[in-house]
Automatic annotation (TrEMBL):
It comes from Knoellia remsis. This is 3-methyladenine DNA glycosylase.
Amino acid sequence: MPAVPATRPAAVLGRDEWTARAQAHAARVDAATAGHLARRGRGVPHPVEDFLFRYYSATPAQLRRWHPGAGVRLEGAAADERAEWRHYRVVGDDVELDVESFMAARGSAVDFVYRLLASTLSRPARLGCFGLHEWAMVYRAGEGDIRHEQVPLRLSQAETDAVVERHQIACSHFDAFRFFTRDAVSRNAIQPSRETQVDLEQPGCLHAGMDTYKWATKLSPLVPSDLTMDCFDLAMEIRLLDMQASPYDLSAYDIAPVTIETQAGKAAYVERQRDFADRSNALRRRLIDVFAGVNVSQDALGRDRT
């Protein structure tokens, strides 16, 4: 990889400092992924803790790579393996993110994610969906059609169907809606699509909150690794509530249900949903700050800056 002329970036990290940060990040990822890796080795799935690795594309090994983000030069890193990583460039004896290369390859994705996050931030959180998307995924499901078939329902199929029929479902997240059973689709007050994703997503949606992690990983190495792991941690917390409020019996995993079919369960769900909306919005702002620091298209900036 040819070196480019040295110009001073926004920040320069000495070798001792950046190697310490990289090691601390690797330790953080190892702690967060140890259970998943141990279970994977034994072929034992977990309906809550494995979700981020099954549904999203980043692997533990990819997460373990530490990225400082744009505008940070790593002193003495030219001899390090990261000098050969995609979208990095050597500057003398140092290494930094090649923002121009990244944006040439991923600029349209940055624009889309910027618009999606900014649009989501611009809307109030809609609370009170009570996680019924998970119930809609098993509504009138036939044998063998249950998404998490290794986990039993905590109510009978008839009782589960009755919960759906007593409520108004208003799921705004396409990637949840697309897993609804055929009979549940028409019961949703909204008919989200990939084309309307930017128009519909809102911060009260648990899946939209989990997706901050998806966007952070999809736009790595532009997104600093500490932010990616903050998104990971929140997504894992949200996934727990997502499954606690679901129709599944997780007692075998020592996970207590949030019984959204009761008034007490609804209140508990909304309280945690409100907290997650606030925290996911904080992550959206941090991601937007990252994207706004590079060459986001003026079209995206003009339409969606909040």
